[in-house]
Specification:
- This protein is of the alpha/beta class and 339 residues long.
- It has 2 domains: 152 residues, Quinone Oxidoreductase, Chain A, domain 1 (Alpha-Beta Complex), CATH 3.90.180.10; 158 residues, Rossmann fold (3-Layer(aba) Sandwich), CATH 3.40.50.720.
- 29% of the residues lie in helices and 25% in strands.
- It is built from 11 helices and 15 strands.
- The strands form 3 sheets. Strands 3, 4, 5, 6, 7, 14 and 15 form a 7-stranded mixed beta sheet that branches.
- β11, α7 and β12 form a beta-alpha-beta unit.
- α3 packs across α4 and α6 runs parallel beside α7.
- The protein is globular and about 60 Å long.
- The relative contact order is 0.16.
- The mean pLDDT is 95.
């Protein structure tokens, strides 16, 4: 294979600029592995990067995508621990929307034999995000009550599974009864359909939580913080309320929401003994040792393969992104190259 296909945008700001290209493969670097990509995992970070609302967005032209799964085609002369034919899943700091990717071996993870490639592409980013939020920042303990927003989404669903595996008591929230019903069918008993006045909903039900995982923001986040028990922690890893409804951001609407975003008084937090923590998983790209340590920790947790709710052909990246942006997806949205 001397050519490959990839999705690229000339610059951030408009998702409509994302275009499918065919290019020639360069020579493989000695310290890299070449993977024939079979599946690409989609994340909200892709949407925010393409629209220019993501702080880590590259300057100029870039290929979106943070995770993939495929088969090793070629191994550089200075690379060890990987062999041609190995099935792997991996993470990348952009560059994932491609049919062939070159990666250092440190960013690759063996794909479990019973998993397909789409499940592999659905695992790295969302599972690392959920684990880091629950354990390293959230310090979740057995029996504690944890509120997980967007519980039917990629990260949310993995967080629900991990919380159960750790012996905690997860409460998931979703935006529709259809998603709530689906979660209950998966074995999660405590699921809330968020009402317009989420604060009143929590107060009415006398809900209190030791940990909250939030990637929505706005009033939902504020209400969640107010529902924390003493010593409770709010962990924030996204802001879905800023998701553009079209290919280009509505900057006035985004600015208005930014000005009305939740703000926290550290002095009041001392008095109420509650905390707010926030993170962006992409920092792990430059800290290989930390990432490997997280992966080793996850090996101790028996989890089923991630739920891939929507599979799109590689040529239909725009359709896949539109579904993800709509908020109607369940589980992971994945592109399959058909190779």
């Amino acid at each position: 294979m001397s050519t490959f296909r990839y999705w690229q945008t000339p610059r951030a700001g408009n998702m409509a600029r994302l275009t499918l290209y065919t290019g020639n493969l360069p020579a493989l670097a000695d310290n890299h592995v070449r993977i024939k990509v079979h599946a690409v995992g989609l994340n909200f970070a892709d949407i925010f990067a393409l629209t220019g609302l993501y702080s880590a967005t590259p300057q100029g032209a870039f290929i979106p995508g943070l995770e993939f799964a495929g088969e090793v085609q070629e191994v550089g002369q200075q690379t060890q621990g990987v062999a041609v034919g190995d099935r792997v899943m991996g993470v990348t700091r952009f560059g994932g929307y491609t049919s062939v990717i070159d990666s250092e071996a440190d960013y690759l993870i063996p794909l479990p034999p019973q998993w397909d490639y789409a499940q592999g592409a659905a695992w790295p980013a969302q599972t690392l995000t959920a684990w880091y939020a629950l354990t390293h920042l959230g310090a979740l303990q057995a029996v504690q009550q944890v509120l997980i927003h967007s519980a039917a989404g990629g990260v949310g669903l993995q967080a629900m599974k991990l919380a159960q595996a750790l012996g905690a008591r997860p409460t998931g929230t979703v935006g529709s009864e259809e998603k709530a019903s689906w979660l209950r069918q998966q074995g999660f008993e405590d699921v809330l359909v968020r009402e317009a006045d989420f604060a009143r909903q929590l107060q009415r039900d006398e809900r209190g939580f030791d940990l909250v995982l939030d990637a929505i923001g706005g009033k939902v986040q504020s209400a969640s913080f107010d529902a924390l028990n003493p010593m409770g922690r709010l962990v924030v890893f996204g802001a879905a309320e800023f998701t553009p409804s079209h290919n280009r951001p509505n900057y006035l609407k985004a600015a208005w929401r930014y000005l009305r975003r939740p703000r926290y008084d550290v002095m009041e937090m001392i008095s109420s003994n509650r905390s707010v923590l926030a993170f962006n998983l992409i920092w792990l790209w430059e800290q290989k040792d930390r990432m490997q340590a997280l992966l080793e920790e996850l090996q101790t947790i028996a989890l089923p393969p991630p739920h891939v709710g929507h599979r799109f052909a590689f040529d239909d990246a725009h359709g896949a992104l539109a579904l993800l942006r709509s908020g109607q997806s369940v589980g992971k949205v994945v592109l399959e190259t058909g190779q």
